[in-house]
Amino acid sequence: MLNLAGTPPLAAMAETDSRRLIAADLRALITRIESSMRLIDAAMMEADTLETGFACGDPAGSADIIVLDDVTPRYATASAALSACRAGLGHALQCLSESGNPA
Predict the structure, then answer these.
(1) Does residue 56 fall inside a structural domain?
(2) pTM for the full predicted model
(3) Which end of the chain is flanked by fewer CB atoms within 10 Å, N or C?
């Protein structure tokens, strides 16, 4: 559970200040999600490299290699979920921007 004891009450803030606070929070969440997506991409590439023995790219003869693993689908599912969250947060930020200048 989140501890919001240190968060200033939005009701006591001016509307512009509360929008700015919300926009900053949304941007921070978007940054964290993008960071997690990069970590997942790196983990997928590392898992692929370990499974195939090849670094990124398409070395000669690697087209004949088929790798079946149980890790990639989980990474792909997590990445898709984060992508959907990212899109939703971006939309929320856009909606907030349309209601005023959150700067």
Answers:
(1) no
(2) 0.64
(3) N
SS3 track for 26-74 = HHHHHHHHHHHHHHHHHHHHHHHHHHHCCCCCCCCCHHHCCCCCCCHHH
102 found inside a domain: yes
Q: Would you write out the chain's pLDDT as a tens digit for each of its 103 residues? A: 455 556 555 555 677 788 899 999 999 999 999 999 999 999 888 877 766 665 555 555 555 665 556 667 888 899 999 999 999 999 999 998 887 655 4
Residue pair 40/78 in contact by the 8 Å Cβ criterion? yes
- Give the domain extent around 86: 41-48+71-103
